[in-house]
Fold this sequence. Notes:
Helix content is about 10%, strand content about 40%. It has helices at about 1-20, 290-300, and strands at about 35-40, 50, 70, 80, 100-105, 115-120, 135-140, 145, 150-165, 180-190, 195-200, 205-210, 220-235, 235-250, 255-260, 275-280, 310. By secondary structure, it is mainly beta.
Amino acid sequence: MLPVIAAFVIAILILPTLVLPVNAALPAANANIASVVTIAQDDMKMNMGVMVLGLTPTSSTLLPTFPNAWYSDSMCGVLVPAAGVIVGPELTDEPILSANTATYYQKVSNTLCVAHTFAIVWPKPIQPGWDLIANFKMLATLNGVPTKPDYLLCELVEKEKAKIPPQSTKSPSKRQFNDEQTKTTLQDVTSNFVCKFRTDKPGVYVLDVYFVGPGIAKFIADHMLIVTAGYKVGKNTVWASDLQDICILGWSMGNEVLAIGLFGPYTMSTGLYADTYFSWDNALGPFVSCDEAATWQLAWIVGGWPYSTN
């Protein structure tokens, strides 16, 4: 009887190890867990930071005008009604961009029409100003307790599209399958930003992200912000990271703008100054996606496909 009881006791002792998968890993009882949580403050509906470069669409200041008796072809075949057609003044020495120009024909004889190229007025709202800072709340904890990290790191990665020509126009084509017309690409742009972590309580921060790069259209894009905190625990370092979105626009598409002079004796009616703080009711305007907003703005400035070719 005793051998049977002993065998039963041994089976109970080893059973927990037998039912675990071969590659199962149990956390150590004294493991340290770090955490970082960030909350965007610029656009709290879509949870993203927003920056505005202060650029303008190519024809944003052109007044809409369209004369009568214009045609859509050089043979004066189809009359274009003036109603509902909004274009800017004629372009003379400006470059002709396919994305923001329209060509109409004016009759000079019964059978001949002469082409005139017009700048199309930007069809969405536009407001003046710039805002080169994105703001976030941040909480860093070690084992659930707000604690000052030993390391704080900040990285920025730009996300955009690249078109992939088919095999017939580019050999060898980089398409992985026939319908892969575009792909999402990433580029490290950290050197164009400065991150400032400010705190008055261990583990509790506000994070100001400043854009210090050139104010050019290339940076109109959806960006990823990666914040990393590290804690020294004995001989080891415990790390944690969080991901946020920053949308960089060329210009604001809000309905209203507030301009406040920061240092000089300026009022809101004296014009725009470098030390002016700008605020808008909604910089993304009618768009609910930074990706789409950036594509529209870039296409208006660049013309045609605004991104790279892979």
